[in-house]
């Protein structure tokens, strides 16, 4: 279950991240300049903040595995919408949805890691989880840049979002225990 939760985030961010391409979107696709880039960069954080506040007031209690997988699928779908959008407002909304769904994923994953890790292995599992998070963000930016150089920015983001959707669906099958997890405890 832990491997499924941690690797799900690794592959979702590796494939679906688009932050490295935001300057291209702001300048060449959305034509919003530096101010628009700043808003685009902040949109995922705003979505995450709103969902974080909502989860603090009303925590996830049931169907945690399904909610984790659905959140990752929503993240991928948000990236597809962002990749195809030529509207600044739709792009901003898609990025806010990506941040919101990522917050759900982070809360569920981190809670599962804390609850499911045996005490003698807690430090090692936390280190691996931290490595996966850091590496996936940096490698995801490299992947976005490389695929954008080959295919262009729009196909890069859309294919990455679709890849994230495929990962979410595959993890439902590969990690059935994770998908069926009802409660944290």
Shape call: globular
Radius of gyration, rounded? Answer: 16 Å
* Unreliable runs: none
Number of separate strands: 0
Largest sheet: none
Secondary-structure element order, N to C:
HHHHHHHH
Task: Give the helix level as a range of percent.
Answer: over 70%
- Approximately how much beta-strand content do the residues carry? under 5%
Q: State the end-to-end distance.
A: 13 Å
Averaging pLDDT over every residue, what do you get? 94
* SS-based class: mainly alpha
Question: Would you write up a description of this structure?
Answer:
With 185 residues, this protein is mostly helical. The model has no long low-confidence stretch (mean pLDDT 94). The longest helix has 30 residues, at 122-151. The two termini are 13 Å apart. α1 runs parallel beside α6. It contains 8 helices and no strands.
Helices and strands, with pairings:
Elements: H1 2-16, H2 22-29, H3 33-57, H4 64-84, H5 88-116, H6 122-151, H7 153-174, H8 176-179
Keywords:
mainly alpha, 83% helix, 8 helices, 185 residues
How would you concisely characterize the structure shown here?
This protein has helices spanning 2-16, 22-29, 33-57, 64-84, 88-116, 122-151, 153-174, 176-179. The protein is mainly α.
């Amino acid at each position: 279950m832990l491997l499924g939760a941690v690797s799900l985030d690794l592959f979702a961010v590796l494939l679906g991240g688009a932050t490295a391409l935001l300057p291209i979107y702001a300048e060449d696709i959305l034509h919003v300049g530096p101010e628009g880039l700043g808003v685009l960069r902040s949109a995922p954080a705003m979505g995450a903040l709103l969902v974080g506040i909502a989860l603090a007031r009303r925590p996830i209690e049931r169907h945690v595995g399904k909610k984790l997988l659905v959140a990752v699928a929503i993240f991928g779908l948000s990236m597809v919408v962002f990749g195809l959008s030529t509207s600044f407002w739709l792009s901003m909304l898609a990025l806010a949805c990506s941040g919101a769904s990522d917050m759900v994923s982070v809360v569920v994953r981190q809670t599962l890691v804390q609850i499911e890790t045996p005490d003698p292995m807690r430090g090692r599992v936390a280190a691996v989880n931290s490595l996966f998070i850091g590496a996936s963000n940096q490698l995801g930016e490299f992947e976005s840049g490389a695929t954008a150089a080959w295919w262009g920015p729009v196909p890069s983001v859309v294919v990455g979002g679709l890849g994230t959707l495929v990962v979410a669906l595959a993890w439902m099958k590969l990690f059935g225990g994770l998908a069926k997890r009802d409660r944290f405890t």
